[in-house]
Amino acid sequence: MAKAYEKIADGLREQIRAGQYGPGDRLPSEADLIKSSGRSGPTVQQALRVLQAEGLIEKRHGIGTFVRRPRTPVLRDNGRHQWEKDRARAPEVQRLKTGATEHDTGLEIDDLVFHASYREIKATKEVGEAMGVAEGTPLVERTYRTRYSAENAPFNLVTSYLIRSLVESNPDLLDESKEPWPGGTMNQLHTVGIEIDRIEELVTARPPTSEEAEELALPPGTAVIVLRKKQFDTEGRIVEMSDVTCPGDRTEMIFTTHLERW
C-alpha cells in the first residue's frame, strides 16, 4: 500500500503530466497542500522532495515550488569525432557556421552563450601520467562553458589540456580571446601540423561535488557522467586531453561500433 507522501507525490505528478501544471508554473504552497490533503507538514515536504529528486519540480527559496522546465537534451555519439576531423580542414566560412555543441544539441550558433578561459600550468603528477608527460611539463589549461541562451546552466563543464611545446609555434593557440575557434581543437592542432589519428574516451559516473551540482543546476540525487577524452596524433602521442563533466539529467551517450563482415 502506498504511503501518504507517495499518494501526494503521485497526485501532483499526474497533474503535471496531464498539463494541469505546465513548465514554469507555480505549485500550491505547502500550506495549501497540507489543507487539501489533510496530511502533516513533514508528509507534504517528503512528497515534494520525491518530485524534486525526480527532476519534475524545483524549489526557489522564499518564492515557492515550480514545475521544472525541461532542459535542452545533449546527445553525444562517437560519430562526432569523424565529423570534427572532416570539418577541421574545411574553409573558415564553413567552420564558422556550426560547432560541436550545435552538433550535439541541434541548436544554432546564435542560440548559444560561450565562455573560454586559458592559463598556463605545470602538469600535476596525475595529469602528467594520464598524458604521458613528466610531472611539471608546461601545459595550456583551457576551461569551456557553453549554455543555451534561454537557460542558466551550461551543458557541461570542460577542462582541456594542451602540451605547450606542441602548440606554441602558433601564438593564437595561447590566446583565449581567439575563442570560440572555428573548427575547434582539431583545427587548432591542424594549424601546427598535427593530425588526430584516434580518440580514446573513458566514461564513468559519480555523485557531483557541491560546486558541480550548483553550476550545472542539478536536481538532488542526480549523478554526473564524467568523460575523459584523449586525442592521439599519427605518431601515437597524446596531444590533447579533456575532462568533461556532464549532467546526468540531460545527457545521453551513444556508441556505435561497426564490425567487419565475415
- Distance linking N and C termini: 55 Å
Percent strand: 25-35%
Helix content: 25-40%
Low-confidence stretches: none
| Count of discrete structural domains | 2
Average pLDDT: 93
What does this structure look like?
The structure is a single chain. The protein has 262 residues and is α+β, with helices and mostly antiparallel strands. It folds into 2 domains: 4-67, Orthogonal Bundle (Arc Repressor Mutant, subunit A), CATH 1.10.10.10; 74-254, 3-Layer(aba) Sandwich (Chorismate lyase). It has 10 helices and 10 strands. It has helices at residues 4-17, 30-37, 41-53, 80-88, 92-95, 100-105, 125-131, 164-167, 184-190, 210-215, and strands at 57-60, 64-67, 74-77, 112-122, 138-148, 157-163, 196-206, 224-233, 238-247, 251-254. It has a 6-stranded antiparallel sheet. Strands 1-2 form a two-stranded antiparallel sheet. A hairpin with a 3-residue loop joins strand 1 (57-60) and strand 2. Helix 1 (4-17) packs across helix 3 (41-53) and helix 2 crosses helix 3 (41-53). The longest helix is centred in the N-terminal third of the chain and has 14 residues, at 4-17. The protein is elongated. The chain starts with a helix and ends in an 8-residue tail after the last strand. The mean pLDDT is 93.
